[in-house]
Amino acid sequence: MKVNNPRFVTSAYSYKDFPEHNWLEIAFTGRSNVGKSSMINRLVNRKKLAKTSSQPGRTQSINFYNIDDRFFLVDLPGYGFARVPRKVKEEWGHLIEDYLTNRPNLVGIIQIVDARHKPTGDDIMMVNWLKETGLPTLVAATKVDKISRGQRHKQEKLIRETLALTPEMEFVFFSATTGEGRERVSSFILGLLDHA
User: DSSP 3-state assignment of 132?
Assistant: First the structure.
């Protein structure tokens, strides 16, 4: 996927903040600090388009990125971070649900999990919810550069079984550091755009 001019458009804190446009959108969901922003940056070959933070729970808005006036990538707030106040968590939950259920531009989801660990209860809940929506979903296991080649098969099996992935739900290992999985994620995105 060749990208020439990706740009940040807006941060939305409520449904009324969502930008109005006619482009299709692909959204990134996952736990706090799992690498959503890093994946977006790697996909568009820009180091600092999406702001990354070493502090989980920093992304508190839905961030919209225009990709060459062709489509949008949308970074949703991370879920499951313990140190965020309950009220803030509830607000995030409503914001994410509003976006996922009411956004007509949305055509697919990239659900991110950590390749090193068993998916959390929040991951399971999110994937179950995505199954109900019927939205095309790619599960991407990030930080794969931090596990050995020998561990991969075991980790993929663990992730697939824990999340009870359906045959339609694609899976890929991804590394923002090495770029592994970039082509697969790009082709998933381009496939969504082609079939919409």
Answer: helix
1 belongs to a structural domain:
no
Query: What's the farthest any 2 CA atoms get from each other in the chain?
Result: 48
Distance CA 51, CA 78 (A): 13
CATH of the domain at 32: 3.40.50.300
In this structure, the strands spanning 71-75 and 24-30 are: parallel
Q: What is the mean pLDDT of the chain?
A: 89
Is 0.85 surpassed by the pTM of this model? Answer: yes
- The answer to whether residue 42 is domain-embedded is yes
pLDDT digits (tens, 9 = 90+) for 91-122: 667 788 889 989 999 999 999 999 999 999 98
| Alpha-carbon span 158 to 12, nearest angstrom | 35
